[in-house]
Amino acid sequence: MKYFVMGIVMAVGLFAGECTYSVKDIDVEWKAYKTPLKIGVGGTFDAIKLNAMPDKTEKGLLEGARVVIDTRSVDSKNKGRDAKLVKFFFHIQGVETITAEIKSIEKDVANVEVTMNGITKIVPMKVEFDEDEVQAEGYLDLGDFDMLPSLESINKACYDLHKGKTWQDVKIAFDIKTKRRCQ
Fold it and tell me: Which residues form the Lipid/polyisoprenoid-binding YceI-like domain (predicted)?
C-alpha cells in the first residue's frame, strides 16, 4: 500500500501542471575604460525594450530574447558625461539604437548577436543561472563595429579627463530577473 500511495503522489506531481518562465525585470550595464591605467566608467541605459517569449525552461526563455536599447538613454549617473556620450560618441556615427539577441546558450556561454552601427557580430558572454536570476557578462571591441571614429571623438572631447587614452573594449553585462508560474 505504501508503494501504491507513493506512486500516485509521484504521478500527480508529474502531471499536476507545467511551469512557465517569464521575464520579471532586466538591467543592461556597460563599463568603458579611460586613462593609461584603464580606469572603468560604467552605467546603464534607461530605455530598453525587451521581447522574450515565456517558455518551460529558463534557457528556452532566453534563447531568442531580444532587446532594443535607445542610446540617448545612457545613464552613467553623471548628466554631463551622459550628454557627452550621446553627442561625441553615439551620434557621431548616427547610432541611435543597439540591438542584441541571445542566439544560443551552450553550457555557461550565451552567444549574443549584437547590432550596432549597422554591423552585426556574435559576442560570447559568460552566463550564470541562479534562482530566479540570470547574469551574463562579456566584452565587445568597438573596432568590430566600426566605431573607432566615435572612439576618437569621445577621446578628443575628454582628452584631459582620459589622459589621452580611451580604450576600445567595453564590458557589457545583463541581469535578468525571472519568475516561474506553475499550474
Answer: 40-177
Residue 9 belongs to a domain: no
Do the domain assignments include residue 40? Answer: yes
DSSP 62-76: HTT-EEEEEGGGEE-
Q: What are phi and psi of 20, to 5 degrees?
A: -125, 135
CA-CA distance, 157 to 3, in Å (whole number)?
75
Q: Which among 62, 74, 67, 64 is positioned nearest to 30, based on CA atoms? A: 74
Contact present, 111 and 84 (Cβ < 8 Å) = no
Per-residue pLDDT of 15-48, as tens digits, reads 446 899 999 999 999 999 999 999 999 999 999 9
In the beta sheet, which residues pair with residue 171? Answer: 31, 139
Structural domain tally of the chain? 1
CATH of the domain at 59: 2.40.128.110
Q: Is residue 3 part of a domain?
A: no
Q: Give the pTM.
A: 0.87
Count of alpha carbons within 13 Å of 180, Cβ hemisphere only? 13
